[in-house]
Design goal:
The complex is a heterodimer of chains A (about 575) and B (about 240).
Chain A lengths: L2 H17 L2 E6 L2 H21 L6 E6 L11 E4 L3 E3 L4 H13 L9 E3 L4 E3 L6 H4 L17 H6 L4 H9 L2 H11 L11 H10 L6 E6 L8 H8 L1 H15 L3 E6 L5 H16 L4 E4 L4 E9 L9 H8 L23 E5 H5 L1 H7 L1 H5 L9 E8 L5 E6 L4 H8 L9 E6 L5 E4 L9 H6 L8 E6 L4 H15 L5 H18 L5 H17 L3 H5 L2 H9 L1 H10 L18
Parallel strand pairs in A: 1-2, 7-8, 7-11, 8-10, 12-16
Antiparallel strand pairs in A: 1-3, 3-4, 5-6, 9-10, 12-13, 14-15, 14-16
Helix pairs in contact in A: 2-3, 6-10, 6-14, 7-8, 7-10, 9-10, 9-11, 18-19, 18-22, 19-20
Chain B lengths: L2 E6 L2 E6 L4 H7 L23 E4 L5 E3 L10 E3 L3 H17 L14 H8 L16 E2 L5 E4 L8 H10 L4 E4 L6 E4 L16 H5 L5 E3 L11 H11 L5
Parallel strand pairs in B: 1-5
Antiparallel strand pairs in B: 1-2, 3-4, 3-5, 6-7, 7-10, 8-9
The chains are: A alpha/beta (about 575), B alpha+beta (about 240).
Chain lengths: ~575, ~240
């Protein structure tokens, strides 16, 4: 495809979208699908047909709209009205009432509940109004299985801009200026990583996308892969141009519902067919193609060196760094490895400029971050917020607070290798440094909210069990250390712990953090350490009084009467 | 190879570029305990016993996989490092069922030596007592997983020197086990050449010749290193 053809195709797609009248967008993200989204899609299509509205309305399946707790969701564009908790019969009523009779089906409006009337304009509701969507801007609005819809909303314009009018150095300069940092959680400056990969000379270079999202309660990357896969491909292609790579891999978590992998596959095929991947892209002489690699179920393969080894077809086990992948990665070649969300943020940076992106967020953490809200929170779902927002705004304004009138206790960020943040820090601004300062970390964006029924010792035990099970077994501190810490925590949760056990835990935790080979072992004691820092009293009550203040632990070792 | 200088515990040490910090330290007579390292085999940085402090880096680094750089400043013997090394040895003893008194390698065992070297007088962590198998199917040798420390020397010597790749690791974490072929009894392995190199490089008594009883087994690890050097393969 040459430039003229590409522009004509995008223009035609735009026209088609505008001319289709009302777009009935049915969420086909994994969360809405498992709660009956496919039946809703079918019923909606049938209702539109039987009402004879095919000329003025078009049913489209789209990616995640964010308010997963209210799914399955249907949005009618351009009105912007969202209907919640749809099923086949309600979907029929929506078509009947909203499309045919031009009236609102009030009882099914988004956030309608026994006490709430629902919202007519979701964009004004705090859930959406407090967000700033850059990565997710098309997610939930376009059909992820149709490249034309991506082209219609300006897809691949950033790639063309980079290929036609920017040198690789200029692309890297723009990413550097944007202040974008690794969204996988560590927060390494993306531009700097690109520059390192660019500087290393080799006959082949690779660009790899880490889609091995494995943290419990995290579904940010999956949502992007399901909702806007072309955006990831475009970001990777821009990165490949910048660093001089000709091949790319997307490493996707194998346990995902097949949706993400299927849609990425469709996206790659369509991009290839359109000439946006492959040889001589947009007639600029740039060659780049992408393959999918599916993980086999090891959490540790989200660690970059293990991920690359797994792509090579070997047992996914981390190796010491340096050399970093940007110097020596896949098959010993310079390899650029970024997370899904990082790549998905690249196209807007190139299109609108690094400077624009850098005005969002805080001085050291620029831009936006996608979070997956889970746990004891009213509106679980997917959100994107500017860096620097407070946890209180996320949990109370966007997330709608804690269900059942219970009290907030702590929020876990960074997944199993992250840490918990207690109530007194709810007003801390969320950025990479502040979370680390509180003993947690940004992580990939899972945010698990806990109320006062959660026992923090048991939380530490749970995440330690996760790390123990997922330890690859290569290095001693992680392999044996996590096992010992889990044993000691289990004793305390079971009412059999002693203060000596606590002392051993406090000795093992920094050892495991500092002596382990990779980020999994280094992060494994984080939840333990942060709960010890903020909730030490709970540990002591378990040990001294053989009692669980939150009432979660069954104190087997407790004397009768105390249980 | 160009010569360069690094500082080990504030002492100037001359070494060749491309060398590891472990090689530089040992050449200069600075002792660092190791377990997974074996002269001539690839380095994996797994046991974490040779951890050193590197000035300017917040992280500890394994000396066996860290390469020397001009004017690098290394500390090998701080209180923290000594404490961590002892914990590593304690954890190894707690992990499986190490009973020296019935072990063929008793008296010629690197884990035992490490216990003395790091000053481990007892194990403070609970013994985990996992259920481990023993594969004595092969007529010449046996492997007792109760004694294995997962250093993967056997895996590497078999793949890198003998070229047979009989050994590999199955499972993960605490449940990792060394396996023969695709977890077949050793006697049924189609790759094992019965060369015995794994027996000689095993730091403990996990791999041993069946005709040796308790304390009788004297390993010849230097034989494997010499063999690698003579063949001109592997690492110096």
């Amino acid at each position: 495809m040459n430039v003229a053809e590409w522009e004509a195709r995008a223009a035609a797609a735009r026209e088609r979208m505008a001319a289709s009248g009302t777009r009935v967008c049915v969420c086909s993200g994994a969360s809405c699908m498992v709660s009956g989204g496919d039946a809703v899609l079918e019923a909606t299509e049938k209702a539109v047909k039987s009402a004879g509205l095919e000329g003025s309305a078009r049913v489209v399946k789209v990616g995640c709209m964010g308010t997963c707790s209210q799914g399955p969701l249907v949005r009618l564009d351009p009105d912007g009205v969202v209907y919640q908790k749809m099923d086949a019969s309600k979907a029929g009523r929506v078509i009947d009432k909203h499309l045919k009779n031009k009236a609102l089906l009030r009882e099914s409006l988004l956030f309608a509940g026994p006490a709430e009337p629902g919202v007519e304009r979701p964009s004004e509701h705090p859930f959406y109004a407090r967000q700033l969507q850059v990565v997710l801007e098309h997610c939930g609005r376009i059909n992820p299985e149709d490249i034309d819809e991506y082209l219609a909303v300006g897809g691949y314009r950033a790639l063309y801009k980079a290929l036609s009018s920017m040198s690789p150095e200029e692309v890297i300069g723009e990413v550097k200026m944007s202040g974008l940092r690794g969204r996988g959680g560590a927060g390494f400056p993306t531009g700097l990583k690109w520059e390192t990969a660019y500087r290393h000379v080799a006959d082949h270079k690779y660009v790899v996308c880490n889609g091995d999202e494995g943290d419990p309660g995290a579904f940010m990357d999956r949502a992007v892969m399901e909702g806007d896969p072309q955006r990831i491909l475009e970001g990777m292609a821009i990165a490949a141009y910048a660093v001089g790579a000709d091949r790319g891999f997307i490493y996707v978590r194998g346990e995902f519902p097949p949706l993400a992998i299927r849609r990425l596959g469709i996206a790659i095929e369509q991009a290839r067919a359109a000439g946006l991947l492959g040889r001589n892209i947009l007639e600029t002489g740039f060659n780049f193609d992408i393959e999918i690699r599916i993980g086999a179920g090891a959490y540790v393969c989200g660690e970059e060196t293990a991920l690359l080894i797994s792509i090579e077809g070997r047992r996914g086990v981390p190796r010491p760094r340096p050399p970093f992948p940007a110097e020596s990665g896949l098959w010993g070649k310079p390899t650029l490895l970024n997370n899904v969300e990082t790549y998905a943020g690249v196209a807007p940076i190139i299109e609108r400029g690094g400077e624009w992106y850098s005005t969002i967020g805080t001085a050291k953490s620029m831009g936006t971050k996608v979070f997956a809200l889970a746990g004891a929170i009213n509106r679980t779902g997917l959100i994107e917020v500017p860096m620097g927002i407070t946890l209180r705004e996320i949990i109370y304004d966007i997330g709608g607070g804690i269900p059942g009138g219970r009290r907030f206790k702590a929020a876990q960020t960074g997944g199993p290798v992250g840490g918990c943040i207690p109530e007194q820090y709810l007003d801390v601004r969320v950025d990479y440094e502040s979370l680390v300062g509180l003993g947690s970390m940004m992580g990939s964006g899972g945010l698990i909210v806990m109320d006062d029924t959660t026992c923090m010792v048991n939380l530490a035990r749970y995440f330690m069990e996760f790390c123990m099970d997922e330890s690859c077994g290569k290095c001693v501190p992680c392999r044996v250390g996590t096992r010992q810490m889990h044993l000691l925590l289990s004793r305390i949760c079971g009412g059999e712990g002693t203060e000596r056990d606590l002392a051993l835990l406090e000795e093992l935790a920094p050892y495991c953090r500092e002596a382990s080979l990779c980020g999994l072992g280094q992060g494994a004691p984080n939840t333990l350490m942060s709960t010890l820092r903020h909730f030490r009293d709970e540990y002591l009550v378990h040990i001294r009084e053989k009692r669980c203040p939150a009432g979660e632990c069954a104190m087997a070792g407790a004397p009768a009467g105390v249980r | 190879m160009a010569a360069l200088e690094i500082f080990v515990n504030d002492r100037k040490v001359a070494c060749e570029s491309g060398a590891t910090v472990l090689q530089a330290c040992r050449a200069a007579g600075v002792n660092l305990p190791t377990l997974c390292h074996f002269k001539g085999l690839s380095e994996v940085g797994a046991c974490r016993l040779c951890l050193v402090e590197l000035e300017g880096s917040p992280r500890l680094a394994a000396a066996c996989t860290l390469h020397v750089a001009p004017n690098q400043r290394i500390r090998t013997d701080t209180e923290r490092l000594r404490r961590y090394r002892r914990m590593t040895v304690e954890l190894l003893f707690s992990e499986r069922n190490h009973v020296c008194s019935v072990c063929s390698a008793n008296g010629d065992c690197e884990l035992q030596e490490l216990g003395y070297a790091v000053g481990m007088d007892h194990v403070r962590f609970p013994f985990l007592n996992p259920i481990c198998n023993l594969d004595a199917s092969k007529s010449e040798f046996a492997i007792d997983h109760n004694r294995c420390v997962l250093c993967t020397r056997c895996v590497r010597v078999c793949a890198e020197v003998e070229g047979a790749h009989n050994w590999d690791v199955q499972g993960r974490g605490f449940l990792s086990r060394i396996v023969s072929d695709l977890n077949q009894p050793w006697a049924e392995s189609t790759t094992c050449t019965t060369c015995g190199k794994c027996i000689d490089v095993c730091p403990v008594g996990a791999l041993w010749p069946k005709h040796k009883a308790q304390g009788q087994f004297e390993k010849r690890p230097e034989f494997v290193s010499e063999l690698i050097a003579k063949r001109g393969r592997g690492r110096p």
